[in-house]
Amino acid sequence: MDLLQFARGPTLTWAFAIFAFGMTWRLVGILLLKRRPDYSEPRNATSWPGAIKLIISRSWPHREFIQRTAFGQTLGYIFHIGLVIVVFGFAPHILVFKGLTGLDWPNLPNAIIYASGAITLGALIVVLGRRLIHPVLRLLSNFDDYFSWFVTFAPVATGMLAVAHLGARYETLLAIHILSVALLLVWFPFGKLMHAALVFVSRGSTGALFERKGASI
Amino acid sequence: MSTADIDSMHPLELNQPRFSVKNPEPRYDKQGDMPDAQRVETAMRYFVKDFGAVAATYMESCIHCGMCAEACHFYVASGNPKYTPIWKLEPFKQAYKREAGPFAAIYRALNLKKKVTTQQLEEWQELLYDSCTMCGRCTLICPMGIDIAALVGLARHGMNQAGLVPHELWAVAERAKREGSPLGATPKVFKERCEWLADDNEVEIFVDKAQADVVAAMSSIEIMKYPDSIVATAKILNHLGLNWTFRSDGYEATNFGMLSGNSAWQNEMSMKLIDATIAAGAKLLILPECGHAYGAMRWQGANIYGKPLPFRVLHISEFLAENTKNGALKTKPLAKTLTFHDPCQVSRRGGAIEAPREVIDGLGAELIEMQDTKGLNWCCGGGGGVVTIHRADPIRYQAFQIKMKQIDDTGAELLVSSCSNCRQTFDDGQDHFHWDKTMLSLLELVADNLEDK
Prior knowledge:
The structure holds two protein chains of two kinds. By secondary structure, chain A is mainly alpha-helical. Chain A is built from nine helices and no strands. Chain A has a domain at 3-16 and 81-197. Helix content of chain A is 76%, strand content 0%. Chain A is globular. Chain B starts with a helix and ends in a 5-residue tail after the last helix. Chain B folds into three domains: 31-165, Fumarate Reductase Iron-sulfur Protein, Chain B, domain 2, CATH 1.10.1060; 183-323, Up-down Bundle (Glutathione S-transferase Yfyf (Class Pi), Chain A, domain 2), CATH 1.20.1050; 327-448, 3-Layer(aba) Sandwich (Rossmann fold), CATH 3.40.50. In chain B, the strands form two sheets. Chain B has a four-stranded parallel beta sheet with strand order 2-1-3-4. The radius of gyration of chain B is 22 Å and the shape is globular. The longest helix of chain B is centred in the last third of the chain and has 18 residues, at 393-410. The interface between A and B is large, with 60 and 66 residues.
């Protein structure tokens, strides 16, 4: 079994298994905890619209916060959108998803993928620099922040090297790329990358609770 | 330290503009003589005691983006990263991951999160109490929607049980538990005040009616510092022709049990008010101009009672708004411009955002909103018990300047709010900065402008 076979075969299989089990364990571990009944007279009888509202509206800041958060938010948007384009728009990736799920969709032109990849890498480097320099971010940051950054950066960087055939044989580069994806999948449930799922739970919980009270969301 | 020692060792100065203890020095306060390890264990046990799915979700969700700092008046005013709201919970996050989260076993086995120490908790006392008003502005900026203010409330439960509360706050909470009021407004004092206020102002103030449709409550700050609020409440309820009363067995709406993090004291204080309202057979309990009293009773009262309350609960501004809208409250026009400071616990976190504006509209005054207003207003900096903590004065004054600028920018003639705790914070800030603005009470403004019948 060569490196590429090892990466595509057992590594990816195990990575997916750990990803699925870890995600389930963490979500179930939180969601199965008790929820106390609330006997206070609600201001709004139905609270779920607040959950939907907050899930959507918190994707951009309130007017009052824009000035102080614009840079960080823009940066976040750039690399998140870049990641979505690269992960879901690149033809070879779509083939992998088709193999896994049977679903298929049209790919984006390679030029867009490459440009998005480069912009994403650039944005991620700025993200890291900012985390190291900004006093608040530096104080808050721990291993999870830096390792999560690394496992996000690595697949994009190795993917770009693979398509550019830079630094090693294509098969080797592809194997390294797949291994980096496996690392991302394995780390995903344990660190902050989990926000991809928790964002809905967390925003939804606050939205529903606050809607009940008529509090500001 | 025994309860009896408190007053002699830390006497309260009730004649000061706001209540205080003598000569507080920079310090980490401790109550009791628990061994350090037990303090930490107790703090964590009580932190997770009321933990449910929602709090756990919050603890799991932080992405360390640091945006919450940009919403916090203490960080914005000082630029000190330690005031970042989510950082105020760091030891509790650490303990949660190690002891209670879904992967706690892994964290413990590999020692990925270290045990929290007493020194850490002592250091965090300042962050959890002195520099957090639990105003919840950070909740509105968090991209994950984490209600950081609620988590600070839970952390305070742990700190209280571990005996790690700033002493002024602990002392007033303990006094409230012992005497029924944090500022010495005992039932006897309250009744006497009502009597002389009734005489002085020639207004009927009902106390301890056996049956009434409406029970009104006051805050200790009003009773002791702003007694005109008692008169104003009576004037308005009489103007409306209601069958109402104060109750000497349940008149105190402030809840320092909640602010200091003592759930047992919080429950006891809330139950006094609930029992008194039920005893009067009232259908409505009116809460005074006090922010946290609103949260304590309107949103937590029924949960302490264990079932829906058999009466409605309204903040005085909501009550005034209802009676303005239905035409029962008749006021003379007030031809002035004014700006309104939203009390965080009533407005942003309580949901009574439009009520005071409807009252102001009814008064015929021109409302000039601040740049950041309603749910996005800046806190005055004195909520959550912060105004009681004297070592917090420097950072509180820094934060207060944000509010001063916003108010000055409106150019309004009058400054009004509907929270007596905000009011005393503004009074103190006015003194400190020799500011030309005086905070007025919405309740008193309405009472002063009632139409003659």
